[in-house]
Design goal:
482 residues, MATE_MdtK, Probable multidrug resistance protein NorM, 15 helices, ion transport, MdtK-like, globular, 0% strand, 2 domains, mainly alpha
């Protein structure tokens, strides 16, 4: 075999180094996502041992908390993007100020959601059709968990602050510890232990609050150890400019999440029309597929960090290169997950139901889902990349169009009109995913993905960075230093 040229070897090393950077950032985020999901699963699992009314109360509460999470996550997106942009510009002072302003905004929004929960817990639950014993238990659980929702807001935003400086390991550690605390306290407080009485659903709520307190304190500790940030007393006052930037980036991200929820409600009606067993199969298949989302969301977090830093540095070509590479790497991981879902989906479904018809439909749904996993990776990674490029509005518009029109129309046509049942539902979901992934990819290729700027050529970018005040730069010198 012929020896590789020095240039080829350099490219390979460069590619290997980039992949290593991606994995170092992405894998802790994947683990964090896993344990974040397990935090909710633990409560549901242990409460299910008490009774159906209790587990229903937790379920409806989590549906409302998902809206709260969308708000807190949106603030986190704004903080994360602005911080990585600032660090890309080597402006650590601005990154620190954004971090403090984000924590202030989290405190405000978390306090407001806490007040809303205290005053309107029953009213919010009634909107979901809850009544009787479930309403009583749900309101009790909801108030204990969500009145101190400032803790949830701090967890989302402080984790984003750490990711903003490229630290994805510390948020992972905090969530793992919170899970362990939550599981131990669930067992002790729900069922009782020694002199501690069995508190049932109240115990589950208290366990969750204590776990979030522990996680928040750990995140504060990790932030204080961060060398890249220096907090100042004067930055603890509201700064209108910073808050406007945070809301400008975060609001579209929040609307995108809420649009997905509303879109699901719209086409859920069609699935219900297919029958109870089909709807149950759809819900179970969706819960199983959630584990594949953890992988993609982890890589999406890495995409936001890396692309945001490159965009902040003005390296638009490098930002695009990283976005595409992360999409390909994530697609590889998701393809493996797709094979797993295709082969073992029906078997996993048997743990959730004993009904043969339901298990069969779960298998059909997950086999179809398996085929679209690489496209799902591309969609979520590019959404994260667009966010890193400070373009949160376009993914929002695309999500609204895809969820409310493409997905809903195809669910109706394929599942209802053509009578394909659950297969039609999941083919429709796949069509929506592929459509949005292709649109985001094409727009990026056209250079219309970085907010407020057109993508520069490689030559222009080198000249701009190396000799910003010189009309006739030494281009060869720049290329060597690039």
């Amino acid at each position: 075999m012929a020896n590789l040229s020095d240039q080829t070897i350099q490219k390979q090393l460069s590619l290997r180094a980039k992949v290593k950077i991606i994995l170092v950032l992405a894998l802790p985020a994947v683990v964090e996502n896993f344990f974040q999901t397990m935090l909710g699963f633990a409560d549901t699992f242990f409460v299910a041992q008490i009774g159906l009314e209790e587990v229903s109360a937790v379920g409806v509460t989590n549906a409302i908390l998902a809206i709260y999470f969308a708000l807190f996550m949106a603030i986190g997106v704004g903080v994360n993007v602005l911080m990585v942009n600032a660090i890309g510009e080597q402006d650590e002072k601005r990154a620190s100020k954004i971090a403090q302003q984000g924590i202030i905004l989290a405190a405000i929004v978390g306090s407001l959601t806490g007040v809303v929960t205290f005053l309107f817990a029953e009213s919010l639950l009634r909107l979901l059709g809850v009544e009787g014993k479930v309403l009583e238990l749900g309101a009790l659980y909801f108030r204990i968990v969500a009145v101190p929702s400032i803790l949830m807001a701090f967890m989302f935003v402080m984790s984003s602050v750490l990711r903003g400086v490229g630290d994805t390991k510390s948020p992972m550690k905090a969530v793992i510890v919170a899970n362990l605390v939550n599981i131990v306290l669930d067992v002790v407080l729900i069922f009782g232990f020694l002199f501690i009485p069995a508190l049932g659903i109240v115990g589950a709520a208290i366990a969750g609050v204590i776990a979030r307190i522990v996680a928040t304190l750990l995140l504060v500790r990790y932030i204080r150890k961060t060398k890249e940030m220096t907090f100042r007393k004067e930055w603890w006052r509201l700064d209108k400019g910073s808050q406007k930037e945070l809301l400008g980036l975060g609001t579209p991200a929040a609307i995108e999440r809420l649009a997905m929820r509303v879109g699901q409600v719209i086409y859920f009606g069609f699935i219900v029309a297919l029958g109870t067993s089909t709807f149950a199969a759809h819900q179970i298949a969706g819960n199983i597929e959630t584990f594949s989302y953890m992988i993609a969301y982890g890589f999406a977090a890495a995409a936001t960090i890396i692309v945001g830093k490159q965009v902040g540095s003005g390296n638009h070509a490098e930002a695009k290169s990283y976005a595409k590479l992360i999409a390909f790497v994530s697609a590889g991981f998701m393809a493996v997950m797709g094979v797993f879902l295709f082969i073992f989906g029906e078997w996993i479904g048997s743990f959730f139901s004993e009904d043969a018809a339901v298990i069969h439909e779960i298998g059909i749904a997950l086999k179809i889902s398996a085929l679209f996993q690489p496209f799902l990776a591309v969609l979520l990674i590019l959404t994260g990349a667009y966010q890193g490029a400070r373009n949160t509005k376009y993914p929002m518009y695309l999500t609204i169009f895809g969820m409310w029109l493409v997905r809903t129309v195809f669910v109706y046509v394929l599942a209802i009109t053509l009578e394909l049942g659950i297969a039609g539902v999941w083919i429709a979901i796949g069509i929506d995913i592929v459509f949005r992934a292709i649109v985001l990819w094409v727009r990026m290729e056209q250079g219309r993905w970085i907010k407020g700027e057109k993508e520069m050529s490689f030559k222009d970018e080198v000249e701009c960075q190396c000799h910003p005040n010189t009309k006739q730069p030494k281009l060869n010198e720049c290329v060597n230093n690039y």
